[in-house]
Amino acid sequence: MKQLTALLLVCSALLLMSCADSNLTKGQQGAIGGAAAGALIGQAIGHNTGGTLIGAAVGTLVGYIVGNEMDKYDRQQLNHVYERGVSGTSSAWVNPDSGNQYQVTPQPAYSGPSQQTCRQAEIMAVIDGRQERTLTTACRDANGNWVLQ
Predict the structure, then answer these.
(1) Burial of 55 (0-12, 13-18, 19+ CB in 10 A)
(2) Domain ends where: 44, 69, 94?
């Protein structure tokens, strides 16, 4: 029953993503994708409905922040921090178009799922005058690119 709940949640999110039209913002699309990924991760870690729901909630938040607030410039800067940032040392930038401010502190790399190289990073952002904090994880894909998990 618990796996069925998780599967239905993920399928619903994927269905919504596939039906997404131009009326959905990048933030909304990111939230849907984040919810689906978070639900899968929550179920895999917690093996229960509570874990699935918590994973979906966290995934929704991270997906929204990344999808809505970070444009191509910000993603390039974040990728640079994952690639070359010194562990425990913050890197900061201000988006020249949006004025959003980011401070990212990467952690040491580790071997993640399927022996991928992964890194966590704490992101402190000031978006529209509001300070937000999130912890992200990125792993290298088969091409060596950092992909947010």
Answers:
(1) buried
(2) 69
